[in-house]
Write a structure and sequence with these properties.
5-stranded mixed β-sheet, 6-stranded mixed β-sheet, 477 residues, globular, alpha+beta, 36% helix, 14 helices
Length: 477
Amino acid sequence: MPNKPLGRKKTFNEYIYSLGQEVAPSFCLQFLVKGKGKIEAKELEQAISRLANILPQLRIQSRGKYWSFEGELPELIVHNELAPEDLNHEIYRKTLPNLKGSLMEFQLFDERELLFRIHHSVVDAKGAQIILQALFALLRKEALEIYTGFDSDEALREQLDADGEIARASYLFQWPGFFLSDNPIDYQTQLIDIPLKIEAPLAKVAVWYAQKFGDGSRIMIPVDLRRHEEAKQAASNLSLPIYLQVEPQQSWQEVQAMLLQALHEKQELRIDRWEKLASASPGFLLKSLMKMGIRKARKLKSFPMSAILSDNGSIDLSDYQTANFQASHLISLPVFIPLAPFCTNVILQKERSLICCSFPAHLDGEKIKEEIREHLTFDLKEEKREETYGELNGGDFEELKKLWIDILACPPEIIHADEKFHNLGGDSLKLLSMLSELADDFQLEPQSSFVSQALNTGGDLNIRELIQIMEPFRSSK
C-alpha cells in the first residue's frame, strides 16, 4: 500500500490568506444551513469521518508554507438549542483554535441547523460549498466522487493561457464614516433577506457603496477559477480577485457591464507587480507589512481596498437535504478583513436573495441594512414596462429561443421577445456562455466587438434587443 503524502506546498494565494489570518483572527469562512427536520449527530459524525477519508482537506493543518493532511478530524460541537438569530453573537465571531491545529469545525444546533466554519486559506467559498454538498450526499447515502487535486496559482494561470501584466495602482480612499478601532473584531454583521431573486446584486451593492461613502470606490471581487473549463471542481482555494473602480454617478447596469467585461477578458488571471514582489518576499516581511498597513489605515482612516464583494452564486437547496432534513436557507457570513471596511456575500436561491454584510461596529447597522434593501429593490418597484409578447416570431427569434432554452434550462412557453435574460434565471456566467455560442452560431464578426457591445448592456437585455445588437455584425461580413 503506498505511503500517504504528508502534504503539499501552499500556493501563493493560500499563503497570503494564511498570513492574513495570523494578523486578523476573524479571517474565517462560515456557512449556516437552516431547515426543517433532523440531522442526527451520530450520522453527521460518521459522514464527516467518511468524507475525511475521501477529501484530505478535512484533516488539514498549517505548517508554515506547507499544508499537512495528517491532522485530526474536524471538531463537531453539538448544541441543544437553535443557532443564535443575531449574527453578531460570539459563536459566529470566535476564532478557530489556531493555525497549527484544526482549521475547520462543524456545529450542530438542535439537530436542525448546521454551521460550517473554516479558515479562508484552506478553501474559498465555492470549495466550502463543495465540502458541504459532499457531506450531505453522504448523509443521503449517495455514492460520492470528488476531485481532490490541487493546482498552484502559477500553473493554473499558465494552463488558462494568461498573459500580460497590470501595473500596481495606488488606491487609498478616506471615508469619514468608516473607522476601525484597535480591536481586531470590532465589526457587526447584518443579513438582508429579500424574497426575490435580485439581478446583478454585486453591481447594485457596489453602486450603493460608492454613493454612500465617497467619490470613488475600489471594489475587490473574488473570482472562482472553476468557471474556466480547464479548472477542475477542486475543494481547494481557487479564487483570484478582480478590481473595479466604481463611481457614484454610475448606474448598476454600467457597473455590471464593467464586471462582465472584466470576466470576459479574464482579468483575474493577470499578475500585477505587487504580487510578483510579494511572492518573492519572506513571510515575516509580508506579515509585518500587513500589520503596518492595518495600523496606518486605522490612524489615517483610509484603506487600500474600500470593499470586498463576493457572489457565491445561485444554489439548489436540494444539495443540502437528506431523507429527514430539508434545508430552507444557506447563509454565507462574510470574511471580515481589517483593510476593507465593507465586506458582503451574496447567495441567490430559487425565489430569494440572501445578502450578508459585515462593516465597522459603530455604524447604524439597521439603517444600512434598510438602505441596501431599498437600493436592491428600487428598480423592481419602479419598473412599469409594457410587455409585447409574440411580435417577433421570425427565424432569428426561434433560433435564439432554442439557444436560451438550452442555456437557461427553462420551459419554452415562458420565453418571449421582451422577457429579460436575467428574469429567466440567467446570470453573468450564463450570459457569457450564451454570447460566445451566439457569435459562433450566427458567425458574427468581429466576435470580440460583438461580445463587448452586448456586455455593455450589463446583461439587462431581451431577445428583441439582442437581435438589434447582432444586426451590424452580420451586415459587415
